[in-house]
Design a protein that fits this description.
By secondary structure, the chain is of the alpha/beta class. It is built from ten helices and twelve strands.
């Protein structure tokens, strides 16, 4: 029997078929304006399984999951049609097996602990630097979820600027509103950022730019200043999470890490400089295969799932 992993990402849906913990087949397709058709998901899963019933199903969502691990409670601007929908019951009805539902950052951390960059760690932190900023933490081998499902995943929504922009989450001056992919694209397009000639030309030519463009034009003083500010924001997120959870290792992942060769060494140096004097200085690492972190975590989670709930 095979395990199915379904990653309902912010811009794409990824599917994985696992046998004995090994990814043997997959599929991926884009979402449309932050929405996904579950009928399409079910059809694609059935095509991958060729009519078989899965032994277990894991589903990841980019937001807060209820404590029972069955529903998406909130994901600002994404998948509103899934809010409070019992995805476990949907899975049992359409795929023949109930699903365990998990926040995507938590699933990614489980994947990296199972067989990735944090393999075997019992105290680990994961930070996703991408469209938004997500976090997750495992302490003494137990995933931090909290009584209502919000525990440890809102690290991107710590206030770093009391007079900063209003974040879509409702808070003010969140790290995500200051230094995420969506914030950079919005601030650049609106003229709120001073851009050097080369970066401005890229924006004019494509109407959208990302963190990779910022890194590639860091020889311009304007880009260098923006990147330095973003590094300070990302560092503050990691330092705050380290002070809260005292990890042995910090996994840094997400689209920003496509430029890990430039960003990760500077980020680690800044984090280690800013941590409390007696704090352990954990290594900052990136996944070898970040595209499958969530899927691998979901497979491990689903295989361990029983009627008592999530491990």
């Amino acid at each position: 029997m095979r395990t199915i992993a379904i990653d309902l990402g912010g811009t794409a849906v990824k599917l994985g078929v696992f046998e004995s913990g090994r990814l043997v087949a997959g599929d991926e397709f884009a979402t449309v304006d932050g929405h996904v058709g579950l009928d399409d998901v079910a059809l694609r899963v059935k095509a991958l399984l060729d009519g078989d019933r899965p032994a277990a199903v894991g589903i990841a969502v980019p937001g807060v999951v209820d404590p029972d691990g069955s529903k998406l409670l909130a994901a600002h601007g994404k998948y509103r049609e899934l809010h409070d929908l019992d995805l476990s019951a949907w899975s049992e009805s359409r795929l023949g097996s109930p699903a365990v539902v998990e926040n995507d950052a938590r699933a990614a951390l489980i994947g990296e602990i199972a067989d990735g960059s944090a393999r075997g760690s019992r105290d680990a932190l994961l930070v996703v630097l991408g469209t938004g900023i997500g976090t997750a933490a495992i302490v003494d081998g137990r995933m931090i979820r909290g009584r209502r499902g919000h525990g440890a995943i809102l690290g991107g929504h710590i206030t770093l600027d009391l007079y900063g922009p209003r974040c879509p989450c409702g808070n003010v001056g969140c790290a995500e509103a200051l230094a995420s992919t969506w914030a950079f694209a919005s601030d650049a397009a609106s003229g709120r950022l001073a851009l050097g000639p080369e970066l401005a030309a890229r924006l004019a030519g494509r109407s959208a730019i990302g963190i990779r463009d910022l890194v590639e034009t860091r020889h311009e003083s304007e880009s260098a200043a923006i990147l330095e500010r973003y590094l300070r924001v990302w560092s503050a997120v990691i330092v705050t999470q380290c002070h809260a959870f005292d990890p042995d290792v910090v996994v840094v992942t997400g689209g920003v890490m496509r430029s890990a060769d430039v960003i990760l060494p500077s980020l680690e140096q800044q984090v280690h400089a800013d941590l409390w004097s007696s704090s352990f200085r954990p290594p900052l690492v990136t996944p070898d295969d970040p595209a499958t972190s969530v899927l691998r975590g979901l497979a491990a989670l689903a295989d361990d799932f029983d009627s008592k709930g999530r491990p």
